[in-house]
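Example 3.2
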Amino acid sequence: MDKQDCPLQFAAERRDILRAALIGAYTDAAEVCDPERGFNDLLHGLIVYHLTAFRLQNAFQDDPDAWFVSAGLGPELHIGGLRLRWNKVGSSSAEQIATSFPRASMAAALMAEGNQQLALWSADPGDTEPVNWILAHVGNPRDGLIRAYLAAPISADGREVTAWARWVPIYDAARPSVDLPDAPEPGLPVPVEIEPPEVLLIDEPHLGVIRG
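Structure, written as tokens:
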């Protein structure tokens, strides 16, 4: 997605907070993840979710245009008219955001339906700005946070998100210092520079003519 598609509400300093919250949550959750004691990947994901909420609530408490809401279907951030929730959408670098979505979540599904209705009511759906966003992250307890996106859901089947309106990559562990890294194209391999093969020229022996 074009970097210009990042809503102004998610300015650089706020993206820093979002990344730091996720990275810290993954780091802290990994410290207690121990499959031999029953602390498996599923529990790790739950810990990341709650630690992210805790960190975001503390980090945004001094932001006058942001407030934390925790009621009904779980915590969310309201920032300048946008709603933000956070969900894991994958566990390995092989997964692509275009086809990766949160596990069944009524809250996320309702956010998708809200964005869809907003587009339907608009005279020009193409110019409609989504108001519901998900801090979508990919990672596991061994590798930590792998990638993170700001993604706007647009379609759901009644219980889970099935499509994104658009997304903005905000973190890639392969390039952790890049604020808005380019997202890899889905299904395409990473280009690799291949050196030209070495060609050996071998002189053929002179073929004589046999006379009868």
